[in-house]
Specification:
Helix content is 32%, strand content 27%. The chain is an alpha/beta fold. The structure holds 1,4-dihydronicotinamide adenine dinucleotide. 1,4-dihydronicotinamide adenine dinucleotide binds next to helix 6, strand 12 and strand 18.
Length: 471
């Protein structure tokens, strides 16, 4: 079957946060849009097996941990009991609401959603193979938004079986709490999902190659965060390189050795979560047939306007360079739709927050202290601890701090790093500040409601340009 009667302005391949947002924005701007998705539901990794289900589990397990460990101090006496099937059902229901929401938005915006695998036959031509056969879509522009997949461990054979050796895809769906969960990789996924199972009763050991967790984060934040995770019962083996994972009986053996060289050690695990990064997903797209080039890491090459090496073919999100973050993909989706509609779409890559949804949360924006030192930038730092914040004390959430980094001369904010309850929401006001080139004084002179956790953000800004009031 071939459909040449109604050419589309835009065919988006992939319906994750990059693809679906691009499609909706383009439709809002008057373009005729189709979205091709190979999964049975829309929303990509983020909505189906990533951000959304993990946040449902993070929230539920955090409530369980609070009920066990801090409700008593608040005068609430309960005897919490874990009902894992119900917790998993809550996660599944949350996913369904979100993916159904995208289908609704497609209908509302008159976007044609097509379930099937898309292959680019030529610029302007996408073949979709689905349950009912193949169909060819003719279009003025194609957007590749196919996202990323689990990378595995380079040089190590990892046999994912979905039960004993798992990636994040399955670690959100374990049917019982493992006794010992070994996490390979102390990055975002390892610490978020490690936290979930640790709170539910697993002993968790994280084996990390680098000498710090959350590698790219500010060193201050990363060391404080690690201490707090240790207090919660998570073990860390840093500067350790995993060299083998063998299933053995009902469990698995994880072998690792010091990065600096030395004797190998082995850990016995009931479940091993491999969280060592993700890579661009382009399989089956037919890029080689049309001349769309990729870089050494396998990411689709693009110019400053998201155009690939072929006219009429664009790419956004995890499949291109930059941080693999849903909100980065969304912003690129909006920018590309605007460009295709003749507007001046643009993403400010200097102001993309990065959030780890653990307890406490970690939120990071702009430059770290290490980056400023390396670049030789003269800066000043201001810090304020949540222990001195009234609302945090009332909530028993006094762990962590807010840290600002500002240009020594102009006071323009160059970075902000927050570790604390609700950090992911608090960083938003700093993003607005930085988007407008604001200074720490600008933020400190902005009235903040009392009593709120966000007063700690203001106090850290005060600490940067003058002195904080409450310390
Ligand atoms: P990651 O890049 O954050 O962390 C992977 C870690 O594995 C690194 O610290 C690396 O040093 C370590 N590693 C690599 N090889 C190793 C070995 N052989 N032995 C021991 N350690 C080893 O990757 P992750 O956590 O898998 O996440 C993938 C992507 O998904 C990231 O880009 C992340 O930003 C994104 N993501 C973002 C989330 C958020 O924004 N909250 C949540 C989940 C994922």
């Amino acid at each position: 079957m071939s459909d040449t009667s109604a050419p589309f302005d835009l065919v988006v391949i992939g319906s994750g946060p990059g693809g679906y947002v691009c499609a909706i924005k383009a439709a809002q701007l008057g373009l005729k849009v189709a979205v091709v998705e190979k999964r049975k539901t829309y929303g990509g990794t983020c909505l189906n097996i990533g951000c959304i289900p993990s946040k449902a589990l993070l929230h539920a397990s955090e409530m369980y941990a609070e009920a066990r460990h801090s409700f008593g101090e608040l005068g609430v006496v309960v005897e919490p009991k874990l009902d894992l099937p119900k917790m998993l059902a809550h996660k599944d229901k949350t996913v369904k609401q979100n993916v159904d929401g995208i289908a609704f938005l497609f209908k509302k915006n008159k976007i044609e959603g097509i379930i099937g695998t898309g292959t680019i036959k030529a610029a302007g031509e996408v073949e979709v193979t689905g349950e009912n056969g193949a169909r060819t879509l003719k279009t003025k522009a194609i957007c590749i938004a196919t996202g990323s997949e689990v990378a595995g461990i380079p040089g190590v054979e990892v046999k994912f079986d979905g039960r004993t050796v798992v990636s994040s895809d399955d670690a959100i769906n374990l049917q019982s709490v493992p006794k010992h969960l070994v996490v390979v990789g102390g990055g975002v996924i390892g610490l978020e999902l490690g936290s979930v199972w640790s709170r539910l009763g697993a002993k968790v050991t994280v084996v990390e190659y680098l000498d710090k967790v959350l590698g790219p984060m500010d060193g201050d934040v990363s060391s404080t965060f690690q201490k707090l995770m240790v207090k919660q019962g998570i073990d860390f083996r840093l500067s350790a390189k995993v060299t083998g994972i063998e299933t053995a009986g009902e469990g698995a053996k994880v072998t690792f050795e010091p990065v600096a060289g030395g004797a190998a050690e082995t850990l016995d695990a009931d479940v091993v979560l491999v969280a060592t990064g993700r890579r661009a997903f382009t399989e089956g797209l037919g890029l080689e047939n049309v001349g769309v080039e990729r870089d050494k890491a396998g990411r689709v090459e693009i110019d400053a306007h998201y155009k690939t090496t072929v006219d009429g073919i664009y790419a956004i999100g995890d499949v291109v360079k930059g941080p693999m973050l849903a909100h980065k993909a969304e912003d690129e989706g909006v920018a590309l739709a605007e460009i295709l509609a003749g507007q001046k779409g643009h993403v400010n890559y200097g102001v993309i927050p990065s959030v780890v949804y653990t307890s406490p949360e970690v939120a990071s924006l702009g430059a770290t202290e290490e980056e400023l030192k390396k670049a030789g930038t003269a800066y000043k730092a201001g810090k304020f601890s949540f222990t001195a914040n009234g609302r945090a004390r009332a909530m028993l959430h006094t762990d962590g701090f807010v840290k600002f980094l500002a240009d020594a001369e102009t006071d323009r904010v160059l970075g902000c790093h927050i570790i604390g309850f609700g950090a992911g929401d608090m960083i938003a006001e700093v993003a607005v500040l930085m988007e407008f080139g604001g200074s720490s004084e600008d933020l400190a002179r902005t009235c903040h409601a009392h009593p709120t956790l966000s007063e700690a953000v203001r106090e850290a800004a005060f600490a940067t340009f003058a002195k904080p009031i409450h310390s």
